[in-house]
Every structure is written in structure tokens, then in C-alpha cells.
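Why do we care about 3D structure at all? Because function follows from shape, and shape follows, mostly, from sequence. That is the central idea of this module. The next example makes it concrete: a single protein chain, its amino acid sequence, and then its structure expressed as C-alpha cells.
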Amino acid sequence: MRVPIDWLREYCDPSLGVSEVRERLTMSGTKVEAVHHHGVDAVERFVVGRVLEVAQHEKADRLKVCKVDLGGPGDVQPATIVCGAPNVAAGQSVAVARPGAVMPDGTQLQSAKLRGVVSEGMILSASELGLGEDGAGILVLDDLTLDAEFAPGAPLADLLPIATEVLELEITPNRPDCLGVYGVARELHAATGAPLSGAPWEQDPGSPGAVAGAQVTVDCPELCRRFTARVFGDVSIGPSPPWLAARLIAAGQRPINNVVDITNYVMLLTAQPMHAFDLDRVSGGRLVVRRARDGEQVRTLDGNTRTLDSQMVLIEDADGPTSIAGLMGGERSEVAPDTRRVLLEAATWDGPNIHRSSARLGLRSEASGRFEKGLQPEQCTHAQAVAAGLMLELCGARLLEGTIDEAWSPRPAQTLRLREARVRAILGVPVARSRQREILRALDFQCTDAEDGLDATVPALRRDDVTREIDLIEEVARIHGLEHIPATLPARRGAAGRLSREQRLRRAAEDALVGRGLYEIAGWSFCGPELLDRLRLPADDELRAVVRVANPLSEAQSLMRPTLLGSLLDAARHNVFHNGPRIALFESGTVFRQGDSPDGLADERHQLGAVLAGAIAPPSWRADGAEADFFAAKALLEALLGRLGVGFETQRSTRPFLHPGRSASVRGAHGADFGFVGELHPLVAQAWELPRAAAFSVDLGAVIEAAPDTVTFRPYPSVPSLRQDIAVILPDAVAAQQAIAAVRAAAGDVLESVTVFDVYEGEQVGEGRRSLALALSFRAAHETLSDEDIAPVRERIVAALEDLGGELRA
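And the structure:
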């Protein structure tokens, strides 16, 4: 929200600089994100001038040479200014920028020669001063209603708001009252103690009762808590005065005409949005507030036709829908240049309903942003009072008797007890009861003394925010000054925090990958339907059992991700384009799938996945750089599971997104499904524009469940090992893992380790067969083994390999 500082000072002026105002508001909870300068600079160079003479430029048909009195001693000659405006004339009081003036776009004005005539300044239009959008002609001060004198040479800043600082505020959702300038002024009053002017709605020219020629019916009071309307006749539509246009522009609004600008001005001042209807275009002179029907359409002021559903609220006349409640008015009843009768509406709409409708229609406005935070019905009359005064002043309007007021059920005020001892216990420091009373009264609470503290009556505009004693303590704390409250630690009472077993093992798993050079990423938990197609998943794949978001922000975020691969591959692609082809990334996060539970909750699992692409090590003088492949990913997986002490085995299998001959499933020692490891299918890698890549993903919950609770220390052996190598020819269908398992089962405890150190395929072993060279390491607990000791073990190993269809190589 943007608040011009001069507008704020109109209601509360603490005589502080902008930086001090920013500090006080921020420290009291109304954060000032930034301060912007709006309008001109070097304001002393902008003055009032009086046009004495106007002559045609001899060398330009569209230019005129003007003699302009800019004040000063009597012997000072009038300035010569070349002007191209068609409406400049002798006798006018005008706005003049002298050389050295800085325009709103930052340009510094200098004397310039125009077609041979030196121009000693510039006669300005409203747009050149940031006071409106009219740049066709100069701004004639005589046409304005101003209380100041037009003496030549008078500072223009004394007459018009040509420069101001603008506060950009971050208003929290619980404080919709601060979405109006007067609400911010009250906060500044409480934070500084500076006087607060009376509320701008104290003087109301209107009256209660029925309104002749207009009717309103509310059919859904649960969604419209109050609907007020007033009718104005003899309205004269035209541009707003410069002071009003300047304030709207500084606050981020675009001036349109005086009636529409009044509604925007009132919204910025009171936080209550309003809408103006051309009453002559309201068919039947009657408005009905009701729920829309599914498929019903309204053409809104932005020229778009919007389709509604039965959860949305619209306003209609005898000819059908005319506007979407709380969001935007319709074209059919908008105020036009020929409008003479205006119905001004101020209503209170249900906040959650407005938020839902805004999201569904993709239509967000200043009004919807306020309604969805929960305005109070009392603000309707505040807005009507301010708007009525402006309509009479700026539009020459005539206010008809009466005020339509529908669906209004006043709520009783709530009184809360604020105990002095409780304030001291919560804040840790005593705050005098008189100071508590001063703070609460500054915030518009009505306070009376009680035996142990104060009884505070909550103002209507804060009833949804302040509902408990602790809320009152918060108000006292933030205005008294959080910097006055010492920082202390809460009482421990013997409590000691520590990580759970799952947290410790999860961190250990992540650290294992970090220690091997991988970088962690944090991907979105959302994905789009196109991800499933890019991963080549068939219709019956288990990953297709996705959880759909009920109210997605976009189609690309309409699903909860069923796998980590999507975010990993997106990050890999980004890094390939920006940092080169060497990619080593991992992610630890939650995936979601449709659950089988009766309550319909999603099945959430914590997975750990990694992706490697390109070279996994830089080339050196000793060797070329190794490429990311199945074995590189499997080595990382072995390091990860080994760090947790979890045994596993891989079995040949494939997934649609993995290479059919270079992938495997990962299973625990008792058959638990951990996940997969393998190279990406070339088509999947191509879809993400990646080079050859490999990946793995494991269910961290299942892995942690299989991890031992304690790590058992094994002493270093005191006797040497005995190594023997064998080469066995096996059919291609027999995996190395299967052969290793057979060797371990046959050898027993005396076998310390078995590894594959060479693989040969060629003519010497025959087609469909390959030779595996196995390094066998034997060790006994308390004695040194000899070849004779190992001979029977070796025979059992050979027999086991022969059972697999193998034979020893000579």
C-alpha cells in the first residue's frame, strides 16, 4: 500500500522527518518497505507566473512567445517563454518551471533556444507536474478552486501538491483498518503521541431512511453483511481537481473522472471500497444481490466477459447481472460523461468468498484485496459520509434524502480484562497502568479502571483482530516499544532438545552425499501433468496415481509431485545451461501419491534422490574424466546406504524413464523395496536437454526402518588375509550380483570379501557368455590361513558357480 506522506500529515503530523516516521511505524508493527519520491524536485524552481503578452512565433506556426511575470523587484524584466499549448492566453495565472527545475522523470530543465528564441523556462501542463494525465494544454490556475493567492513568483508548492514522499507499507492480513490512510495515521498517533485529527467521516451530510427511485434487495446475507447506497442528482462529470488527481497518482491510482476518483480516494482514506452506478442505466432502479448461477456471465469494466459459478456473488438489475460483488463493476452501468444520477454503493462482503472468487476468476483488484482481509460493516457509513461531502463539493451534486441500508445486524462491543500482573508476566517488564491506558486509548479502545487492571472495549474496526487478553498485551508491547523489552531465554525446567532417530539418520544420509561432492537442491512440491508425459509413464503406472491440488495457482502447479526426478532434472537442465555439463545434485524431500486410507489422505513419503550428468571427475594427466553412468550412481548409492549400515541388493529391472539395459531396482536385505538406480532413458535425457545422465531415488523412510539402531565396533584383524582370484564364464543372463551371492553362500564366514575386478566378452568365451574375474579375500579370526585351508572352500565356490551354468576359465 502506498501512502503519500503529506496526506498522512494532514491527519497526524509528528513533526518528524520521513526517516523517523518510517522507523516509528516499522517498530510499532506497520512495516515501511520503502520510501519513494513522487513528483518534481528542486521545488523552489517551480513558481506561479502571470502571462502578460502572447505573440505568434515568427518561425513556427504551433509555437507562441510569451512574456511572463515571475515576480521580483519592479526593475526585473518579464521572462520570455516559448510555449506550444493551444490554450495559453494573456492574463492567465500559470505554473512555471524555471531553469534548474527537475521534472518528474528526472530531467533538469535548462534555458533553450527554440527556433531562434531563447526560452527562459517552461509553462507546465498537469501531466508535466504529475497532477493528472491531461497534457494537451497548460494548467491554468485561475480555473482552480484554491485558497491561496496567485501572486507572481509565489512558490507553486504552496498551491499544489507537486512533490511528496510516498511510504510503501506492508500491511499484515489482520489489520485491514490500516489499508486506509486514516488507519495508518492512528498508528502514527499511537507510536509518536502526536495529535490525531478527527475522523474524516465525523461530518455526514446524509440522512437515514428510504431513498426515492432506488431499491436494493440482498438475497444472500451470509455473504453480504451490509449493503448501503445513496443517490445523487444533478451530477456534473468532469476531471478531478489537481490535488485529488495528485494524491491518487502518488498512491498508485489512475485518475479517470471526478465520480470514479472520489470512490478511489475514499477507499484509500477509509479502507472501504465503493462503486458508482449510473442510476439511469440501472434497469428498473432496483439492485438485487444474489448468488450467481453456474455458467452465468458478466462483462466487467475491463472489457472481459467472465463466467461465474454458484459460489460467487453478483449484483443485478431488471435486465440481468451488472457487476461482480467485491471484485469489479460491469460495463452496462458504469459512469459515463453524460451521467446525471449516481448511486454510490458501499458494502461489506464475506472475505473468504471474495478471496475464492478472485482466485477462480483470475481477477484481483484493490477492492478485492481489502475485502478478502475482512472489513467491518461500520466502515460502509464511514465511506458514505466522506464520499457525500466530496460529491457535493467536486461534482456540484444534489444528495437525495435517505440512505439504503440492507442486511445490517449490529454486533455488541466486546470488553476484555487486561490484568496488570499478566502484562508484567508476559513481557518480563512492568508497564504502568497509566501507560497501558494511554496506549489503548490512542488505538481507539475505550478503557475503564478495574480492580486488577483495565477493562478495554474493542473498537468495531478491530473486533476480528483483538479477541483475547493476550491480544491487548500485544498492542501494549508494540506501542510501548519492543526495544524496551529485554531479550530473555524461557525457563528450561530440565528440558533438553535432541534430534530424533529419523532426523539423525536423514542428516547422515544427506551428509554422505555432500561429502562426495554433491550439491543439495530444494525443488517445488508442485508439478504439472506434462511431467508424467516427459517421464514416459504409461497410463497404468503407479506414479500416475497423483494427488491433484484443489485450487492450483496454475496448470503447471496443479499436481503434488509423485517423484523427485522432475525437480532434479529441472535443476540439472538449468545448471547445464549456466555452469557446464558437470552435474552432481541431490534432493531430500516429500513425494505424494493417492492413498488407500478411508479418510482419503494422500500417501506422503520422504525420498532421497540424486542425478549425475556429464563428467563426474575432471580429466587429468593420468586419466580421462569418468562419465556419469549406472556404476557411478550405484557407487553413490552404496556409499549412502553404507553410511547408514543398511544392506541391499540390486536386481535387473527397468522403469519407463530409465535405460532398459542399464537400470535396476534396489531392495533391502529382507526384500523391502527401496527404490531404483540407473541411467536415464535417452529420450528422457533429450526431453530435458541433458547429456548422458544417471540417477537414483530411495524411500528414505524404508531405508531408515531397515537401519540398525546401534553400530557395532569390529576390531581390526590381527592376522593377514589370503587372496585368491578366479575367472568364471557365465551366461549373460546371470548377473554379477547373483554370482557374488552364490559365492558368499558357499564360502561361509571365512570369506571376508568378494569383488569383480574384470569383465571380458569376446570370441574366447562364446556368444551370449562373459567372463567375470573375482577377487576372493579369506581371513580367519585367530590364525593365518594357507592355500590348503582354503582348498575345500574354493571347491564349494566353484560348485556353486557351476550350478549357475558357469565354468572356470583356464
